[in-house]
Amino acid sequence: MSALLEIECLGKSFDGLQAVSGLTFAVGEGEILGLIGPNGAGKSTVFNLVNGVFAPDAGRVAFRGDNITGAAPYRVARLGLARTHQIVQPFAGMSVLDNCTVGACFGRENLPLARAREAAREAAALVGLEKRLDAPALELTIAGKKRLELARALAARPALLMLDEVLAGLNPTEVAHMIEILRTIRGRGVSILMIEHLMQAIMSLSDRVVVLNSGKKLSEGVPAQVANDPAVIEAYLGDPGMVQRRPQ
Amino acid sequence: MLGRPFFWIIAVTIAVFAAAPLGGNVELRESLLLAAVYITLASNLNLMLGYAGYVNFGSIVFFGLGGYFCVYFMGSLGWGLAPALAVSGVAVSLAALVFGLGILRLRGVHFALATIGVNEAVQAFVTNFEPWGGSTGIYLSPELFQPLGGPAQALWIIYYLLVAIMGASLYLSYFVKRSKFGLGLLSIGQNEDAAAVLGVPTPRYKALAYSASAFLPAIAGGLYFFKGAFVQPADAFDLTLSTEAIVITMLGGQGTIVGPALGAYLYEELRGWLLTSETFANFQLVVAGVLLLLIVQFAPDGLMGFFYRRWPRLRRIFE
Amino acid sequence: MLGLLASLVDGLLVGAVYGLAAMGITFIWGVMDVVNLTHGAMIVAGMFGVYLLVAATGVPAYAALVPILIAGFLAGVALYWIAIHRMIGRPPLMSLLATFSVNLVLIGLGTAVWGTVLFNVSVSLPGFSLGRYTFPGTHIMAAVLTAVIAGALYLFLYRTRAGKAVRAVAANREAAELVGIPTTRILALSCGLGVALAAVSGALIATLFPFTVLSGDAYQLKSFVVTVLGGMGNPTGALVAGLALGLFEGLATPFMPVSWTLVIEFVLFVVVLIAFPGGLISIGRRRPAVR
Amino acid sequence: MRKFWLATAIALSIAAPGLAAAEDTITIGMTVSQTGPLNVDSVAQLRGAEFWRDEVNAKGGIKAGNKRYKVRFVTYDDQSVGGRVQQLYTRLIVQDKSNFLFGPYSSGLTATAAVISEQYGRIMLVGGGAEPKTYQLGNKYLFQCITQADYYLAGAIQALKEKNPHAKVAFVYSDDPFSKAVVASAHKLAEQAGFSIALQESYAPSTTDFSPIINKVISSGADAFLGGGHYPDGATLARQLHEQKAGLRYIAILVAPDSPKFASLGDAALGVMVPSQWEPQVKYKPDFGPTPEQFAKAAYATTKVEPDYHTASGYITGLLLQHAIEQAGSIDPEKVKAVLDKTDVNTFFGKDRFGTDAKNHGLQIGHEMVLAQWQMKNGKLSKEIVWPSGAATAKMLYPLAEAH
């Protein structure tokens, strides 16, 4: 398994607060890697450092062998790395189809408009939004917006998909549906790096898991191994919020 | 493209502008000429304001600089109208690119303030710039109209050139909106960070749009000030005109293709009426202000936005 | 040498008034995240306020400041409810356009009523002489009153309950709401205060220089320059930057044609906006302009 | 396209022959700065023109051949803004069908209006555009009725030379076409006169705070001050020079001190001089029209305002047009133009003659100016002619302090 994304000694601080430090891990080709950790562990910051929203203070990020440390988000996207946001960021006034078309147009394949529309339709269909193509994004439900967020990223036909809590806020049926979708995506050979709080889901989906705590890597390994790591258990027991975050 | 109804709607608009004063109606020509200038300014402003969501309060700087370049090339360097216009357009677009690289790093209100700053800085500079006549400006000899067949004929030629520029502006709005570039701009207007994450090369697109929105207004400015045979800083960089362009764009509907044209036509009609009305002659600004306030408070997407919401099918025809 | 000193003092005196004018705009910015484009019109309203009060009642110009302060405050509260309230939480562009439209209305009405003729409030105060140079008494008085008003604003913000609430809203509106501060009322109050500052500075300017309905534009632009130099949302910074700008104008005039100072000011404005969005003089907190 | 149909309908309806009513009226169009910084002087000029119109109409109109034409004015407010001037002059010609035009006030606006009058080939008489460059661009229909800018300060400089041949002069002037043209040639004259130029500084026309510039004047050690622009800046300048005790011995300011309103400055007005196109006290012998005294009295009686030179120049534009139409016996523009080209007359306003060579067509080459000073007379501020000595009504008070 060759590494698709390599992160070495990544570090970032905000106003003196160390959000991420000395973090090293890699995502392999075709792999689903779960990134878990208590609230404030720095998971979303890692995403932001990888795709260029923030430039890291230290360390190196390489994607398919190219050094992308501190590259602008649109450059990273063009290389085939797509992501979703923890708080959905739809283009509220644009239609679902247009939202997805943006992803397709400016993603890895840099498609011309007409072909991008096709890719956008496919992506929308994949997440089950094919009936709402003309609806403005702001009219979708939260679950719909989450799916749109995913469809937009998928339309880019990325090599690596970074998902930031796509399951949060969904009801059990919706969660089951979303997991179905993620499996399909993976079946198409797309690698996934996902942040998730739903333990059941992430443990069943992931090939490997990386646990973050206070910006540092606490543990890494296959799900079963990580779940039994004493350090991980301690970190989570120190986080009483865990109880509420189990699926209802 | 040819199958799209709106392509033909633009063509008809241009044809009406071209044909209406054909009987030699100079009065109508003058009124339509102003409308054409407003439409040009508003629909180019719309590229930044409506599509990319950047409020350019100082868009008039393009118009004014275009006027200055053109008048300078013709009056002081003895160029003909065509090369003077072309070079003015290119020069101002390049200048816009340079300004843009700086101020497009700013967003929202900061960007709006910076555009005012750019306009004021350019105006203050030109006021002191002696090769361009300082505050006096540049006056052209009436003899410069001779190559166009004398002043009377020159005025007609200028009118048709301005109508062509107006048409070009509408088609530019249209093609940009229907292009990948336009889609990128619209996504920037909706959520710039998300657009960048999806791969939209935001700095390049914004700079391109800013620069493109300078080209046609610069040529229009060149024609406008050539027509008047003089240009001076107070007129060339009058912020009132760029605010009028904003009012027009907001009135018609920002981000739509017809909006700016509709807004410009209505605004010019209203202005003409206010200008000649005994009671309201002095209330042009008040009316513009009240209109803008109402739009901002109650109908932020303007007339076309209102129509589209009311009759969604219209959007298919006009966009 | 004496000439330079005279220019310096004169610059500082005028600069204090620039600072006062800019405090109004920067205050509203800091608390409400709104750029008040009616600022220039409100300055002009203050000017005409003094003119009309003096003409109608014959009171000394400085006695007119108190009613103008009150009227300015009320106008600001009205402005909040008419134009700004619905814009809170909408994109910044909307509040910009909303205040701008009110500005158009005010300037339009002013032009319709008074035309654009020059008006003059004559105040005679003994000046202060330094060799051949004379500083008009009105300039000295304006600077002193600016200091008094700035001091009063400081006391209000740091020593009163309402002032603390204002600062809380400025720091974090949601959090302030959560701890029970009536944020809407605080926003209206802040808008009132900001406009009152604009009106009073206009009244003071009217005692210094003649004015027209359109004079506000120039002072509004100058206020922007001062605001950007001093850091947006930072009243202390505004005062310091105002003094600095006045000083610059005073000191530059002996060395260059007066008309070039404007070019430098606006270039500085744009450059500072781009390069130091927190302001050159960031005594207070910083607000990132570039994300 | 409502306008289009409307226009077509109007065009059809007036195409019908037999327009008896329109024939005995001539329409004269002009813009006036009812608002804006030029308003004081521009309105004074309009007063003069309207006074002429009412006088002519009271006498039954202008006689051309065997016809009499009543005069009708169409005026618009140009707000002192150049951009509007062009729109409005186009409107005056195209829509209001003006037969003749009068110029707007100020050199800047005149230059812009002249473009339109030339484009449409309408005669325009100018009573308030002194800057000469406009008349040297090759315009054919433009006639300047007042002395051009190059000579404005010539009198002030000669008068100063008589008092103090070694004067140190400060030129402080508004950055507008007129004031720039005036100072450019005054600068040359001052050097020829052997003065030293202590300071030359321009300011934006909208300036209201002159204290930095006045400090500069003081630092320069100048004892004579020449400059200004139009009413608002000139009046403010005089006031602040007084307030800051600039200690000058000689002050001549353009335009502003000529207005009767200038007296409202009180002490600050005392001793200030102004180059003037005309003063009520002049003693010219007219070939036709009123004498200076008759004009001043009648104008005051009708308009209730003391006539200044702008009022006189407003009147003279009308008078010269009337004279030309009467001489031509027709309102045909080419015939009237031919008479104007040959005009060489004396009126209450003094001598008037226009340049006729292609490079200077329409430039005023006959008229002369005087220099007036605000003095205290019988406890009241009054404007007296102090130069040339032949026309003087009072002795020049020099240095300035003597006026106080």
Number of helices of chain A: 9
Order of helices and strands of chain C: HHHHEEHHHHHHH
For the biggest β-sheet of chain C, the strand order reads: 1-2
Question: How many angstroms does the end-to-end distance of chain A come to?
Answer: 36 Å
Our Rg estimate of chain C from Cα atoms comes to: 19 Å
What oligomeric state best describes the polypeptide chains here?
Answer: heterotetramer
What's the pLDDT, averaged over the residues of chain C? 87
Query: What name goes with the CATH superfamily of the largest domain in chain A?
Result: P-loop containing nucleotide triphosphate hydrolases
What is the CATH class name of the largest domain in chain A?
Alpha Beta
Mean pLDDT of chain A: 88
C-alpha geometry of chain A: globular
Task: Give the strand content of chain C.
Answer: under 5%
How many strands appear in the DSSP assignment of chain A?
Answer: 10
CATH architecture of the largest domain in chain A, by name, is 3-Layer(aba) Sandwich
Judged by helices, strands and strand pairing, the structural class of chain A is: alpha/beta
N-to-C SSE string of chain A, H for helix and E for strand: EEEHEEHEHHHEHEHEEHH
Helical fraction of chain A equals: 25-40%
Give the overall form of chain C: globular
Poorly predicted regions of chain A are 242-248
Q: Strands of the biggest beta sheet of chain A: in what spatial order?
A: 6-7-8-3-9-10
What number of structural domains do the residues of chain C give? 1
Kindly describe this structure.
The complex is a heterotetramer of chains A (248), B (319), C (291) and D (404). Chain A has 248 residues and is an alpha/beta fold. Chain A folds into 2 domains: 1-78, P-loop containing nucleotide triphosphate hydrolases (Rossmann fold), CATH 3.40.50; 80-190, 3-Layer(aba) Sandwich (Rossmann fold). Chain A is built from 9 helices and 10 strands. In chain A, the strands form 2 sheets. In chain A, strands 6-7-8-3-9-10 form a 6-stranded mixed β-sheet, with helices on both faces. In chain A, α3 (96-106) crosses α4 and α4 crosses α5. Chain A is globular and about 50 Å long. Chain B is mainly α and 319 residues long. Chain B has one domain. Chain B starts with a helix and ends with a helix. Chain B has a two-stranded antiparallel ribbon with strand order 1-2. Chain B is built from 15 helices and 2 strands. Chain C contains 11 helices and 2 strands; from the N terminus they run ααααββααααααα. By secondary structure, chain C is an all-alpha fold. Chain C starts with a helix and ends in a 16-residue tail after the last helix. In chain C, strands 1-2 form a two-stranded antiparallel ribbon. By secondary structure, chain D is of the alpha/beta class. Chain D folds into 2 domains: 25-147 and 283-360, 3-Layer(aba) Sandwich (Rossmann fold); 151-276 and 369-403, Response regulator (Rossmann fold, 3-Layer(aba) Sandwich). In chain D, 38% of the residues lie in helices and 21% in strands. Chain D contains 12 helices and 15 strands. Chain D has helices at 2-15, 20-23, 39-58, 82-94, 107-119, 154-163, 177-192, 211-220, 231-243, 292-303, 309-328, 333-342, and strands at 25-32, 62-64, 67-77, 100-102, 124-126, 142-144, 168-174, 196-203, 224-228, 250-254, 273-276, 344-347, 350-353, 370-377, 380-387. The radius of gyration of chain D is 22 Å and the shape is globular. Chains in contact: A-B, B-C, B-D, C-D. Chains B and C meet through α5, α11 and α13 of B and α4, α9 and α11 of C.
